[in-house]
Amino acid sequence: MDENHKYEIIKKLVDTNGNKKTAALKIGCSDRHINRLIKDYKEEGKAFFVHGNRGRKPAITLPTDTKQLILDLYRNKYYDCNLTHFSELLAEKENIKVSVSTISSTLRKEFILSPKAKRSTKKEVKKELKALQSKTKSKKKAAAFQSSILELEDSHPRRPRCAYFGEMLQMDASLHHWFGDTKTQLHIAVDDATGAILGAYFDMQETLNGYYHVLHKVLNSYGIPYQFFTDNRTVFEYKKKQETSVDKDTFTQFGYACKQLGIDIQTSSVAQAKGRVERMFGTLQSRLPIELRLANVSSIEEANEFLNSYIKKFNKQFALPIDSIKSVFETQPDNEKINLTLAVLSSRKIDNGSCLKYQNQYYLPVNGQGIAVHHRKGTTAMVIKAFNGDLYSCIGEQVYALELLPEHKLSSKAFDLATIPDAPKKKYIPPMSHPWKQASFEKYAKSQLHRKEVA
Length: 455
Hints:
This protein is of the alpha+beta class. It folds into 4 domains: about 1-50; about 65-150, no CATH class; about 170-230 and about 270-330; about 345-455, no CATH class. About 40% of the residues lie in helices and about 15% in strands. The protein is built from 15 helices and 11 strands. The chain is elongated. This is ISNCY family transposase. One of its GO terms (biological process) is DNA integration.
């Protein structure tokens, strides 16, 4: 259009012997350049105004086959990637180094947008697709346009970061198709000051077990944080609950563990109040499923193993440097204290065989020398399942190990060769300084507001 405009002005100027200054104003050039245009028009005619690069691709243009390869890879292998992540994967795994803007323009021509596209961009593409859909007569094309129309998503507002590393950890879980065909819950703890993920764990449901594993990783790797900021899940807090059984009172158990460690818990029912962890899940949901799929992860065990290496890579790319921010983490507890603090409690009664039943199996309390200790029927006992799976029982102010009773004896005196019976094996008994004393825990549980309201 610009070339034809110049040609018509110069042609009219030559044919009518018009004013050169007026022509220069219309074209936007000097009088001397008008004289050059007149001279070249008389020598070459209309062909002179055709630009020399017409029909020639720039040297930096991406080859057509590379563009097609990028489209095919995104549709078949790296689908649902955001474009920044897609460009990183292309460079890392396919040896194709292209900018995000090039990828964006290539995909945009096929009406493919990033899952993280802005609201205005989605509206614009919707408008284009609807216009094309109304014009096309082919039902197949109309259906293709309709499937490309994207829904709008809400965003979360921002808030200032905390001043110190470990001052506040935001904890939450997200139900998503992270891997395989079944939805699973990813539990994470995010430091508010640096944006680093300090602990992550997959589980089938959002449970006490999942948050215990996250807390275990935080304690082992960094120490004791000052505060947790979470939602109003029953693991953290609730106002009233009809069930007062210790087994199901996960809030009391998690709260007591945090009390022993000196960790404050704050909760909120507003998702935007903990926007750091909410936005983190948005980033992970667009990146982690692709990484898990490329690593051929198909089980929770494999996924949790994969998280150990992936979280380090993720923090290196997205988190602020930890060294530049002062840490307020308390000294790490020893492994024995962590193991006993992150315990699951259950209340049981001793039966007439001096045993207690736990998870459909019978256990006998034994002392440190491995000798069975007998109690009266109906005696209250608190079963302590430590983080590593070891079982203990607290009866009164005494702690015992629990020995599993098999359904059948391993040998028979009547039919097997006589053997010297093994001496009782010594059992590890935690010292009385451990946090799960029955009396102190029951005192804490009775002081909780939700238990008072139920009573």
